[in-house]
Every structure is written in C-alpha cells, then in structure tokens.
Amino acid sequence: MRENKVFKKGFTFQAFEAPEQSIFDKLFDIFQEIIIHTSGDLEEALEWMKELDREYQLTDEEYTLDDFVQDLIKKGYLREDIEPDGKGGMSITTKTEQAIRKRALDQIFGKLKRSKKGNHRTNYLGKGDEPSGEFRNYQYGDSLERISMTESLKNAQINNGIDDLHFTEDDLVVEEAQFKAQMSTVLMIDISHSMILYGEDRITPAKKVAMALAELITTKYPKDTLDILVFGNDAWPINIKDLPYLQVGPYHTNTVAGLQLAMDMLRRKRNTNKQIFMITDGKPSCLRMSDGNYYKNSNGLDPHIVNKCYMMAQQARKLHIPITTFMIAQDPYLMQFVREFTYANQGKAFYTGLKGLGEMIFEDYETNRKKKIK
Fold first, then answer.
1. pLDDT per residue over 2-31, tens digit each?
2. Taking Cα atoms as reference points, which of 244, 117, 237 lies closest to residue 181?
3. Hey, which residues does 190 pair with through a beta bridge?
4. Which residue segment(s) compose the domain that 28 sits in?
5. Distance between CA 180 and CA 71 in Å, rounded?
6. 316 and 231: one domain?
7. 285-310: buried (b, 16+ CB within 10 Å) or exposed (e) per residue?
8. What is the per-residue burial (b if ≥16 Cβ within 10 Å, else e) of 172-191?
9. What's the pTM?
C-alpha cells in the first residue's frame, strides 16, 4: 500500500537568541566603548570597568578583571611600557585602535563586507572600467575588448542568416562600462568647548563617526582618500590613529581656519571628486587676524566672522568642492546661518541630533560617490 506523505510549507518562528560570546568578548565590547569615552585614558577606563563589575557582576571567581587584562596583553591589545624611572605602565596598541574603528563601523554602518577592488561607480557610462550590462552599436574608436561576442553573433545570425554567417561592422555590439569614481574627502570635526556643554557629550559620537568613516574607506574603498582635521581657535590635521584620544578644548569656533585647511588639503589631491564634511554644533565665533591675534565674539552671529565664512563657502564652490554641513543644533538663528552658508557653496546641510548622524554621513558619502561632482 502506497503511503501518502503530506508536505507542509510555511515559516517557523522562534525567539531570537543572541550569538554565544565568551566572557572575554563581552568584556572587550564594554572596554572598547569606554576607551572612546575616556579619550584613550587606559587607567580611567579600567577604573570604569571595576565600577561596572562591582555593580553588574561582569566577572566571577573563575575569570576576573585581572585575567581580562592579562588576556588583553597576550592578544596584543595592550602593551606593557617601562617608564624612565623604572616603573611599569600599560597603553593600548594599534591593534586596539583598529578594533575600535571596526566596531564603530559595525555599529554605525552595519556589517559591511569588504569588496575585492573597493571602488564606487558613477552613473556615467562610456569608456569606463567596469561592465554595466548595457549594450550599444559599435562606433569607430571603441576598444576591441569591449565588443560583446555573444550579442554580436546574435546580430550576425539575425542580419545575415545561419547559412551565410559573416560579420559586418553593423553587427558589432559593444558593452557599456561604468567609471570607477574616486573620492577625496576631508572630515572637519568641531572641538570647541560647546561640544561637551549642557550635559551632552557630542564629541564621542563625532569621534565614532570619524572612526567608522575611516574604517569604511580604508577597507572598502582603498583608492579613496580621507583626511581628518579638527578646529577650535585654530585648525590642524589629525591622524586616523589619533581619533580615540581626541578631546574637546577650551576653544572658540574658527570655522574659517577649518575650511582653509580643508581646501589646502584637497588642492593637493589628484582625484576629480572632492568634498568636505563638517560636523559642528555651534556658530563661528573666532578668526585669526593677519597679525597673529585672535578676533573672538561669542555673542550672537558676528557679521565680520559670518561674512568670512560665506567667502570661504564661495571659494570652495569655485574649486568645485561641495561642503556638507551636519549641524548638531536647532537654534533658529544658527539654522539660518547654515542655510545661507549652504546657499553660498551650493552644497548641502543636515540639521540633526546625535542619533542617526553616522547613517546620514554614510548615505551622503555613498550618494556623492555615485555621481560626478562638477
């Protein structure tokens, strides 16, 4: 007797179970987050870990915080230093800095897979680098490598028949290609005192965004370039490895100095596509005069300082450098300043809080990479 089998189709749902993590991995996640907040101060970070352990029992008798520190040393995340006076100390290594950048990338941009060639595509077709899947008739001067033999054979059969199969120039079909665009980006980070005022830590999210963007570009788009600068009373470049240690200072906001330095950096780049991202929460309040002294005014928007900012925006526009401003403030008069600044540059502006800042920058970076900036 034939047995009848019933096959049921559908979905089976079950409660989400987080991936199993070792105690070291759990503690290392917490440690990486804390080290950003302490600006790389290892001693303070370990004190925070002790407080959290006391409150939440992160470790047990079998695996203590001392064991965790020893594992950090063994795995190359910490190194033991010998001081000139003979005393010992510890510091984080480049391996830790890279792990922090990767974690920031995963947190902000999701689990992005590294591509083999690491290049973006523009929307412009022609004699480019990568096949697009679109075809057109052969034109004099087209490279022979771009001829699609399959499509050309199909045309020859249709036009000439199978019995008298031969090629003519009219049968040839070329596959279009897309250019792989390269982008040079300067990320400007405001480190004026207002970035930690009013009980809100704004510098830590800015650092995370910078680290994530740096990791994205160096791993997925290695032909792109990213330079990072900070601006307070003055502006100066920082290395990617310095990002975890970045701190806010007792500074005013010299936006003009930041823009001048950003444009100087981009002038030296050979890439056609160039852009500036600026993360700031306050109004421009400082200029450095030709005699070396500072002109400062924190009361409202100073016309002299503001007009200098507009001039810099126009200058960047003439150099075909769009500026995208991420304004972490909602004051109407500051928003009006950003609107006029953006109009002068013909760039873009986002009025945003700290939540979602990274995603916005990533999306804008991807969008700009897919078009030709003129």
1. 555 555 555 566 775 666 789 999 999 999
2. 117
3. 231
4. 23-92
5. 43
6. yes
7. bbbbeeeeeeeebeeeebeebbebbe
8. bbbbebbbbbbbbbbbbbbb
9. 0.72
